[in-house]
Amino acid sequence: RRMNDKHFLPLSRQASAFLLGAALTTMLVGRAVLMTWLALGIVLGLVALGKRAFAWAPWRQLLLAWPARLALVVLVVFTLAATYALDRPDAAAFWDEILGFAAGALLLIRVWHEMPTAAVQLAFKTLAIASLLAAALALLDTFVFSDQLAQALHGRHWQNPLRLGFMTPVLACLAPFVWVWLLKNARLGDPFATRCGLALALLMLVAIVLSGGALSWLLALLSAGLFLFLAGRWHGLVIHRRQWWLGAAVLLLAIVGHGAVRQFDDVWQRISFGRVITAPTVAKKDVLWPHALVAFAQRKLLGVGLQGYRKLHPPAGVVRTHSH
């Protein structure tokens, strides 16, 4: 039995690190896949902890930390909002999801806190490689007119001309992890990261620019700004003028190439804030925001409750609204 534990527990830890590292990228496939990978990673991580998973001291330290207290306050507010919501059954169902996310986050932090350095590096590596693969597939779908590839990447949205816009917000959030992994390996003298680091970093940016729209561009700008600020402040990262010009040239050539393949009208639709809502019977944001302020004024303390916007009467002349 000791021999089995000696081999099984490290294997469970490595499998947990791999699943947790790749889980965020599976968000592109669907929430069900994401939850499955996260659940399997957490279970295998708890198995790798062995008896330490049931020790009370680490759980007590985790529950008394200030993030846990803040999360408890948020859960209490959400509970009150669900209790006094316009649609209580729908709000209760959504509250159950939030409670499940909170429990999963607690277990995930417990597993991640006990994970050794080698397993953390494996998870980080898996996340970076999976994100780069997703960016490469997004670029391939941009320039290659393949129905099979579109169906595999986007499922039921594969015929939507703006389908790539569903991927880029995720890629924009994952990009800093890729850049940190490349920077870390380059600093350690890894030949692959040293030679290909700049090209792979630009690959993420090009994929976001060509696949997404204005919102994705904004997220990428925030991600890049945060990465450059922290890496420059704490790790002495310096981007030279030649590298700035190279990055700008690559992005410009990518946009021109995208326009040549997909027509420049498609590029303009992607960067236009109004491209999502075109039907006159669907409310635009300048109509929804004043309507939301009026609803807030009527229920100042808890608002309309969880998911309550679905039950609000739409403004005059509008058939339906949307959560955005």
* Helix-strand makeup class: mainly alpha
Radius of gyration of CA atoms, rounded to a whole number: 23 Å
Report helical residue fraction: over 70%
Major sheet attributes = none
Write the H/E string, N to C. HHHHHHHHHHHHH
Poorly predicted parts: 273-281
Report what the structure shows.
This protein has 324 residues and is mainly alpha-helical. It has 13 helices and no strands. Helix 6 crosses helix 8, helix 8 packs antiparallel against helix 9 and helix 9 packs across helix 11. It starts with a helix and ends in a 26-residue tail after the last helix.
Short description:
The chain contains 13 helices and no strands. The protein has helices spanning 2-23, 31-49, 56-63, 66-83, 88-114, 117-143, 147-154, 168-187, 191-211, 214-235, 241-262, 264-271, 285-298. It starts with a helix and ends in a 26-residue tail after the last helix.
List keywords for this structure.
324 residues; mainly alpha; 73% helix; 0% strand; globular
SSE blueprint:
Elements: H1 2-23, H2 31-49, H3 56-63, H4 66-83, H5 88-114, H6 117-143, H7 147-154, H8 168-187, H9 191-211, H10 214-235, H11 241-262, H12 264-271, H13 285-298
